[in-house]
Specification:
The protein is mainly α and 368 residues long. The chain contains 12 helices and 8 strands. The protein has a single domain, classed as Cytochrome p450, CATH 1.10.630.10. The longest helix is centred in the middle third of the chain and has 30 residues. The structure holds protoporphyrin IX containing FE.
Length: 368
């Protein structure tokens, strides 16, 4: 049901919406170029949640412009509580509800009412052939499930919509933060990326241009190799299975590590080197074989449907960052990886230096 929402045609229609949000992210970051270190993952979270809600429901939370937004608080309350529950040893909330759990239930109910209200409103407009605004995933979902045995109940609709927003918010923001960890330590890499995107205009960037960025792609792949934001997946054998010479009985659950093949020799493999993903002539290597060994988006029938979308988002943000800023790490040794719904960098602090429009070299704001 979700797959038709991620066709090439859909992705193309999302690019202008993502670019508009990337421009707002740039404006927000430009206000933070006074030399003070910033916790950039908070800005990426606002970007991701705005893009997620826009592309999934067609609603603009405007959290990039205004953090004090009731729906955003409700949403973060749900995400934060889910993160806490993931670390809890016992699912006590199934037996007894603490005040925070009651708040969680209220927040879920509030989001549910909001989502269903939006969906049924859009559904009515679609049936009456009225304008429903810019394309979003909800439109596709309603088109493929509008009637008969495909018709979705309110619960199904809410579950499908929320998994999309929750699935995209933490993961993409975490990945952008990890990208910054590596970029901010390598001025030359930033310069080469800047060259690669020098012809980009955020207002008009298109699908083909975004698919012709070998170095940017290599930087993203290399970040996934070391820091895939979903480091472990639980899979279950649906039937007795042989994996090489290992017998796996039906029903056995296995923790698979999405990074393990990329990091076997700690000393060499933790070195960030995007060149691993490029041929000698700087063209991208064939990813097919690598995908069997590393799978940051999962593998098989439940693989992440949002992989191509998040790839577009990351490329647009990366292009915006290197075009307009120079990134400098502040105390790289303080950065630690912690696991919430995804693996995120803690204590990542970046100093941003604004680049004058059209210039290749970083000049601190105020000196131009
Ligand atoms: C860096 C960004 C992302 C990463 C690393 C990521 C990773 C993953 C992984 C590992 C899974 C589990 C796959 C499996 O069980 O085999 C997954 C599932 C999923 N992801 Fe993503 N994801 C990202 C972005 C997105 C985006 C942008 C969306 C949607 C807008 C999305 C929507 C989903 C959904 C709906 C599922 C559940 C699929 C199912 O169970 O059938 N993800 N993702």
């Amino acid at each position: 049901m979700l797959i038709p929402a991620f066709t090439k045609k859909s992705l193309i229609s999302f690019i202008p919406q993502i670019s508009r949000k990337a421009i707002l992210l740039r404006e927000r970051l430009q206000k933070k170029t006074n030399g003070e270190p910033i916790e950039i993952q908070n800005d990426f979270r606002c970007f991701s949640v705005d893009v997620g809600c826009l592309l999934v429901f067609g609603i603009d939370l405007k959290s990039l412009e205004n953090n004090d937004n009731h729906i955003l608080h409700t949403f973060h309350n749900v995400v934060n509580r889910m993160n806490q529950r993931l670390r809890s040893i016992l699912p006590y909330w199934r037996v007894v509800k603490m005040p925070a759990d009651r708040k969680f239930d209220e927040s879920i109910e509030e989001l549910k009412q909001m989502v269903i209200h939006i969906a049924r409103d859009v559904q009515g407009k679609m049936r009456r052939n009225e304008n429903v605004g810019e394309h979003c995933i909800l439109h596709t979902m309603l088109e493929v499930t509008d009637s008969g045995e495909n018709a979705l109940s309110d619960d199904d609709l809410f579950a499908n919509m929320m998994i999309l927003v929750l699935g995209s918010e933490g993961t993409t923001a975490a990945m952008l933060s990890w990208l910054c960890l590596y970029l901010s330590q390598d001025d030359d890499l930033q310069r080469r990326l800047r060259e690669e995107v020098s012809g980009f205009d955020m207002e008009t960037v298109d699908y083909d241009a975004l698919n012709n960025l070998p170095l940017t792609e290599a930087v993203i792949e290399e970040t996934f190799r070391i820091r895939s934001t979903v480091p472990a997946l639980v899979v279950e054998a649906l039937e007795d299975t042989m994996i090489d010479d290992l017998f796996v009985e039906k029903g056995t659950r296995i923790f698979t590590l999405t990074r393990v093949d990329g990091i076997k020799n700690l000393e060499n493999d933790m070195v960030f080197n995007p060149g691993r993903w490029l041929n000698d002539d700087a063209t991208p290597i064939d990813l097919k074989e690598m995908r069997q060994k590393q799978y940051p988006f999962g593998y098989g029938p439940r693989t992440c449907p949002g992989a191509s979308l998040s790839n577009l988002e990351m490329k647009i943000v990366l292009a915006m960052l290197v075009k307009h800023f120079k990134l400098e790490i502040v105390d790289k040794d303080a950065v630690e990886e912690i696991y919430t719904t995804s693996a995120v960098p803690q204590n990542l602090r970046i100093r941003l230096v604004a680049l004058p429009e059209g210039h290749e070299h970083a000049v601190p704001v105020g000196s131009c």
